[in-house]
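In response to the reviewer comment on reproducibility (Comment 2.3), we provide here a single inverse folding case reported in full, input and output, so that an independent group could reproduce the run without further information from us. The structure tokens appear first.
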């Protein structure tokens, strides 16, 4: 029986929880702390906070939001967006984050992954990958700065290198599927899970419980990050847990 982590993903812009489609067309949803508390109470295994614009504007990250959330939410918190240096990471961990997700800075200087892993431990270094399918070349390209900039990095080659450098986990988002509710890019998930031995979190596209099952059973994901289906109450965490258990997965009791 495979274990499965159910993760609530909260994308934040300034003081607001937001939701986008393919990383564009942002809509305000509400107060992120309120939603984080709700998902914790409903049994989420982890909370992911992503600052949607910090990388683009090199702005202050979510330090205060994380500090307040960590006082109320007692499951692991992963934070990403605008983290560029070991000092940025140190301050975020000190604020209460358990793990950090890093993308733009390491696509430009991959050696930063090794530096962070050696200083803070691989277990807290999550490689954030925003992957976009490239039909003309085959496969997927890793994007940076909230999906706005190309890196030229092939996703499969990039995740292999990141694991070698010390990344402990991968947060894998399909830019093509994000916010569409059409299901995860199972081919993408499968390509990444076959390439690495570290855990892979599938993100981007969940619209039904069957999509979750496909990501795990066909793609091999170790965890699923959910946003739209939770924010708009299309699915409840209690129902997701129950149906996952009925499907044969080990999930944490609420």
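Designed residues, in position order:
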């Amino acid at each position: 029986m495979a274990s499965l982590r159910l993760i609530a993903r909260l994308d934040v812009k300034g003081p607001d929880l937001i939701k986008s489609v393919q990383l564009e067309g942002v809509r305000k949803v509400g107060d992120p702390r309120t939603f984080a508390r709700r998902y914790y109470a409903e049994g989420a295994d982890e909370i992911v906070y992503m600052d949607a614009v910090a990388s683009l504007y090199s702005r202050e990250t979510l330090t205060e939001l994380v500090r307040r959330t960590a006082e109320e939410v007692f499951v692991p918190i992963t934070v990403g967006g605008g983290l560029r240096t070991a000092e940025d990471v140190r301050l975020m961990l000190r604020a209460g984050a358990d793990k950090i997700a890093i993308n733009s800075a390491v696509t430009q200087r991959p050696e930063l992954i090794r530096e962070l892993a050696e200083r803070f431990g691989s277990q807290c270094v999550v490689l954030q990958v925003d992957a976009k399918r490239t039909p003309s070349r085959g496969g997927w390209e890793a994007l940076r700065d909230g999906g706005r900039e190309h890196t030229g990095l092939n996703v499969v080659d990039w995740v292999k290198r990141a694991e070698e450098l010390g990344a402990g986990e991968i947060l894998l988002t399909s830019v093509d599927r994000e916010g569409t509710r059409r299901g995860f890019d199972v081919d993408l998930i499968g390509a990444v899970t076959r390439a690495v031995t570290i855990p892979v979190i599938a993100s981007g596209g969940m619209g039904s419980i069957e999509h979750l099952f496909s990501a795990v059973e066909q793609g091999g994901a170790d965890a699923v990050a959910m946003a739209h289906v939770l924010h708009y109450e299309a699915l409840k965490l209690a129902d997701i847990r129950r149906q996952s258990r009925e499907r044969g997965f080990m999930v944490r009791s609420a």
